[in-house]
Design brief:
With 376 residues, the chain is an alpha/beta fold. The protein has helices at 15-27, 38-58, 71-82, 97-110, 127-133, 156-166, 250-286, 314-323, 336-342, 360-374, and strands at 2-3, 65-68, 88-92, 113-117, 138-144, 170-173, 192-196, 208-212, 291-293, 305-309, 326-327, 350-352. Bound molecules: pyridoxal-5'-phosphate (PLP).
Length: 376
């Protein structure tokens, strides 16, 4: 089996992640933050250690790093918690349905309006275009850091600087960049960064993070027990408790801690290697007749390559690859606005995304297999 679907979730997970998850369940699987016995305290310390490690990585205050189930929940919390009736929102063609669907609900329910920024021919957003789009009614700018279809990375620092200059909060969807690029509140000029724990941070499924700057205070999505201020029926104002009702995912967070520790030490080396593998794959795929590679060749990108057979069916190619042991993602990748911009709404695309454990041999074997499958 060759796994080239790391943009969906990284696999396999590092052995340290598996070990940390089993250790937590085996040795201190109590409820973190609930009760004063030593097992609950040990579970609580693991959660706070993970929060501290994430806070250092993201340049955030620890109490402003919120645990969620995935990037979708982080985005929902930020979007539904920040926007008011009749606000205007600016976002891009790169947004995932995790952004577009909550926005769609607010459009029909609360009369918000959504402006989609037009990228240039390379797929890059211009700070000037963003500056012109912002009005007095703009309540939030939401931008995807790197496309999960083309891999193209947006100039987020410059775009964020425009948001700061105009006093509008910026929410960055870092699903494809957290753990790969320098993703901090300051480096992106962001007010909120949403990310999964299970992709580039190498943690398990069911983990996500939302980092908040002091400037923002979204309404919580879920209310309930936090193990704190239990005498009151009012949701605590204190962070992170305000946003973390209900039992936390201890084994997930223990695994995420191991992933973040690894990424903190090796982020640049892992990313460099993944990009080299991705470039190698792109070069080989570019030599195959009848295959269109999506996204500008020279734009900055993370390790993602999507292709479309010019006269054929991309899902048939994805299925044929799967039948021969290569796991890739076909279809629309939950990114309808991007596929509509690329003109690939009907065909979809086949996405290859190498990860930390992909080998050169696997890349070469995959390219050879695609060449064989594309032969008439
Ligand atoms: C750009 C982007 N945003 C959001 C998400 C949603 O992430 P999750 O599956 O962790 O909810 C993804 C997942 O692929 C993504 O690629």
């Amino acid at each position: 089996m060759i796994y080239l679907d790391n943009a969906a979730t990284s696999f396999p997970k590092p052995p340290q992640v598996l070990q940390a998850m089993t250790d937590s369940l085996r040795h201190f699987g109590a409820n973190p933050g609930r009760g004063g016995h030593h097992l609950a305290l040990q579970a609580g310390r693991t959660v706070e250690k993970c929060r501290d490690a994430a806070a250092r990585l993201l340049g955030a205050k620890p109490e402003r790093v919120i645990f969620t189930r995935n990037c979708t929940e982080s985005l929902n919390l930020a979007i539904l918690g920040m926007l008011h009736k009749e606000d205007e929102v600016i976002c891009s063609h790169g947004e995932h349905n995790a952004v577009l669907r909550p926005l769609e609900r607010l459009v029909s329910r609360d009369g918000i309006t959504v402006k989609l920024l037009r990228p240039d021919a390379r797929g890059l957003l211009s700070p000037d275009v963003l500056r012109k789009a912002i009005t007095g009614r703009t309540g939030l700018v939401i931008l995807c850091h790197a496309s999960n279809v083309t891999g193209v990375i947006q100039p987020m620092r410059e775009l964020g600087a425009v948001c700061r200059e105009r006093g509008v909060p910026l929410l960055v969807d870092a699903a494809q960049t957290a753990g790969m690029l320098d993703v901090t509140l300051d480096s992106l000029n962001a007010d909120m960064i949403a990310m999964p724990g299970h992709k580039g941070l190498l943690g398990p499924h069911g983990t996500g993070l939302l980092a908040l700057r002091d400037s923002v205070r979204p309404e919580p999505l879920i209310l309930g027990g936090t193990g704190s201020a239990s005498e009151s029926v009012r949701q605590p104002e204190l962070l992170p408790d305000r946003y973390e009702s209900g039992t936390l995912n201890l084994p997930g967070i223990a695994g995420l801690l191991a992933g973040i520790e690894l990424v903190t030490q090796q982020r640049e080396a892992i990313h460099r290697r993944e990009c080299a593998l991705n470039d190698r794959l792109r070069q080989q795929l570019a030599g195959i007749p009848g295959l269109r590679i999506l996204g500008d060749e020279h734009a900055p990108r993370v390790a993602i390559t999507a292709v479309v057979p010019v006269s054929g069916d991309s899902s048939a190619l994805a299925d044929a690859l799967d039948a021969t042991g290569v796991a890739v993602r076909g279809g629309l990748h939950c990114a309808p606005a991007m596929h509509s911009w690329l003109g690939t709404m009907r065909s979809g695309a086949v996405r290859f995304s190498p990860g930390p454990y992909t080998t050169v041999q696997e890349i070469d074997d995959t390219a050879a297999l695609v060449a064989r499958l594309m032969r008439p």
